């Protein structure tokens, strides 16, 4: 895929194989990092090369206030659909990031425990579940075959869980859906290395390691969400039916729309 300047990554989900040897259609479903720094050339590429028409921003109100996407929202169909509240996912800025990191390190289990808890919240929070319902409704009502781009800040945690759910609904195997989530790591590799080295030199090796655990996709993180679904909702199929509210007819329609 053509790289867009000032955008860490963009990923067309097209081509991902389903369990019955079909694959997702190209050019309909994308995930990316946030678009707050995108410029005129980048926006032109989104529009003309990727044909992105709808942008779904999963960030909190505070995050958007700090890094607005006015440039994008004025040109594309931009929708703010936060999965978490400000309290559930406090915005991080240059002034508070080291304090937040210090607090996470002090928690029982440290950063890994915090991240696992965040992923459990992403599948149990009423706000998140309601947004999943609304997003799947939009996908169902996409009668003109328009494309959707989903993002949060990095495009890893909130976007990762949403994309995992979308892939499962579209018939992708559990393992392949998890591999797609984990593929974030090689898409963001160089940026993460630069951040790690800078933090290691400027602050401390301990905080550099802790921050990297926040910035990387880990199997234990997505597994904590899946395990929570199993424990609290009786498995992924029950979750899709009873929480997201998709019927068998809805799932068949979605697969017809987005799978080739």
Q: How would you portray this structure in words?
A:
The structure is a single chain. The protein has 260 residues and is an alpha/beta fold. Helix content is 55%, strand content 8%. The chain has helices spanning 40-48, 61-66, 70-73, 97-106, 110-124, 126-140, 158-169, 174-182, 184-187, 189-202, 205-215, 219-233, 236-243, 248-258, and strands at residues 10-12, 29-32, 52-57, 77-80, 147-151. It has a 5-stranded mixed sheet with strand order 1-2-5-3-4. Helix 12 packs across helix 13. The relative contact order is 0.16. The model has no long low-confidence stretch (mean pLDDT 91).
Task: Please give a quick description of this structure.
With 260 residues, the chain is α/β, with parallel strands linked by helices.
Kindly list the characteristics that best describe this protein.
single chain, alpha/beta, 5-stranded mixed sheet, 8% strand, 5 strands, globular, 14 helices, 260 residues
Spatially, the strands of the biggest sheet line up as: 1-2-5-3-4
Q: How much is the radius of gyration in Å? A: 18 Å
Task: Assign an overall shape.
Answer: globular
β-strand amount: 5-15%
- How many angstroms separate the termini? 20 Å
The poorly predicted ranges are none
Number of strands: 5
Structural topology:
Elements: E1 10-12, E2 29-32, H1 40-48, E3 52-57, H2 61-66, H3 70-73, E4 77-80, H4 97-106, H5 110-124, H6 126-140, E5 147-151, H7 158-169, H8 174-182, H9 184-187, H10 189-202, H11 205-215, H12 219-233, H13 236-243, H14 248-258
Helix pairs in contact: 5-11, 5-12, 7-8, 10-11, 12-13
């Amino acid at each position: 895929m053509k790289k867009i300047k000032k955008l860490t990554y963009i990923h067309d989900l097209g081509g991902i194989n389903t369990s019955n040897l079909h694959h997702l259609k190209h050019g309909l479903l994308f995930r990316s990092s946030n678009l707050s720094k995108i410029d005129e050339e980048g926006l032109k590429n989104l529009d003309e090369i990727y044909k992105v028409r709808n942008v779904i921003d999963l960030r909190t109100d505070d995050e958007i206030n700090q890094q607005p996407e006015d440039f994008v929202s004025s040109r594309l169909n931009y929708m703010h659909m936060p999965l978490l509240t400000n309290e559930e996912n406090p915005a991080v800025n240059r002034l508070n990031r080291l304090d937040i990191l210090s607090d996470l390190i002090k928690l029982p289990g440290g950063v890994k425990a915090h991240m696992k808890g965040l992923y459990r919240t992403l599948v149990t929070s009423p706000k998140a579940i309601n947004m999943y319902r609304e997003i799947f409704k939009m996908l169902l009502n996409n009668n003109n075959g328009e494309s959707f781009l989903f993002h949060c800040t990095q495009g890893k945690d909130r976007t990762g869980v949403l994309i995992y759910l979308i892939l499962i609904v579209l018939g992708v195997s559990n393992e392949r859906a998890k591999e797609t989530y984990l593929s974030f790591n090689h898409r963001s590799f160089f940026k993460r290395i630069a951040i790690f080295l800078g933090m290691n030199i400027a602050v401390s090796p301990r905080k550099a390691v802790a921050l990297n655990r926040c910035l990387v996709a880990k199997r234990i993180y997505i597994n904590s969400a899946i395990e929570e679904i199993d424990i609290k909702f009786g498995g992924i199929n029950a979750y899709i039916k009873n929480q997201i509210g998709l019927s068998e007819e809805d799932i068949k329609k979605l697969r017809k729309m987005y799978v080739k």
